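> example.struct
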């Protein structure tokens, strides 16, 4: 599939099969994150692949009780490895870097036939406690990873005219 085809067919998945994710596929997803661009190529991130069913169970309340997190055989926890750095443009480098890495990972997962669902609704402190993440690190995003047990229709998107402008804000 072309990158655009993967982008077009990816969906947020909120129902998972218990079927395990093959080691090779997990490694390919993690590799997509490892190769993502980062500000100053700092790569100040850590991608925690949670496979222990007991830990995954504990992540459900840490993710606001989103029960589908507990269905997935793998949960990826994307952490900024160190303090946030605000770039000259005013934007947070580590959060952006981690977001790009996870974007690459969810697309690679989709290419491999695996479902994900980017989660922003989680408690940074609770996820850190479950996974023994040091106090000076931050969890930027979480996603379950596994085979989908649903085929959601595409969610609506704004039109090109609404989101694109040429030669200035219009
Ligand atoms: C930053 C961010 C946070 C999100 N947080 C959640 C979440 O906590 N729970 C959830 O079910 N979906 C979450 N989503 C998924 C969005 O609801 C979903 O991407 C959006 O509705 C579009 O649907 P699609 O991904 O299937 O195209 C999040 C997505 C993003 C990008």
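> example.seq
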């Amino acid at each position: 599939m072309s990158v655009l085809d993967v982008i077009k067919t990816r969906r947020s998945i909120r129902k998972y099969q218990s079927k395990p994710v093959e080691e090779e596929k997990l490694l390919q997803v993690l590799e997509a994150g490892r190769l993502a661009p980062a500000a100053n190529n700092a790569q100040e991130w850590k991608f925690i692949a949670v496979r222990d069913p007991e830990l995954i169970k504990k992540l459900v309340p840490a993710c606001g009780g989103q029960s589908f997190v507990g269905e997935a055989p793998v949960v990826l926890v994307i952490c900024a490895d160190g303090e946030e750095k605000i770039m000259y443009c005013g934007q947070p480098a580590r959060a952006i870097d981690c977001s790009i890495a996870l974007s690459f990972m969810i697309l690679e997962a989709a290419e491999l036939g695996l479902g994900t669902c980017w989660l922003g609704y989680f408690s940074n402190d609770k996820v850190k406690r479950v996974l023994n993440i040091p106090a000076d690190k931050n969890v930027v995003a979480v996603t379950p990873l596994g085979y989908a047990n649903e085929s959601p229709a595409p969610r609506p998107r704004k039109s090109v005219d609404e989101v694109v402008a040429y030669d200035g804000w219009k």
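> remarks
Residues 93-111 form the longest helix (19 residues).
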